[in-house]
Design brief:
Length: about 150
Amino acid sequence: MARRKYVICCLCGYQHPIIEKPYPQLCPGCNKIYWEKPINERRLMLLQEKYDASGRQDKEPFQEMLLIIEPILHNLIASKLKSSAIYLEEEKRYDLVMDSLVSFAEKYNKPGFKITGSFVGYLKTHILNPLYNPKKKRREKNGSFHAHPCFR
Ligand SMILES: [Zn+2]
């Protein structure tokens, strides 16, 4: 696969050479912040700022974040199941998404916690991976995916 040469603004399509780092904070095309992130990451970052600006008192931005994150978790879990050739009934898949969402909300609302890189990256590494493989030992013994009650 050819290596990507440009990072593209998710809003206006402006192309910036990937090798020219650091990227400008505001898009040179449309002047918006977080332009270099995927659109959902951008929305989540803005909601996080709004939530933090209220001292985390205003719960509405957080609720909005969860509404964006839920379908992301759904997709991540569906593709993980597919790549592991595991079939789960819709109801159990839904349980898994909800448990992941609750786990995210709990971790996120610990004092001082915030996402600085990528929300999707955080979800994969800290929410979904422990769900599938809580301990290496367990994975070796039972194969992956047996951590969550849905898989037992
Ligand atoms: Zn732009």
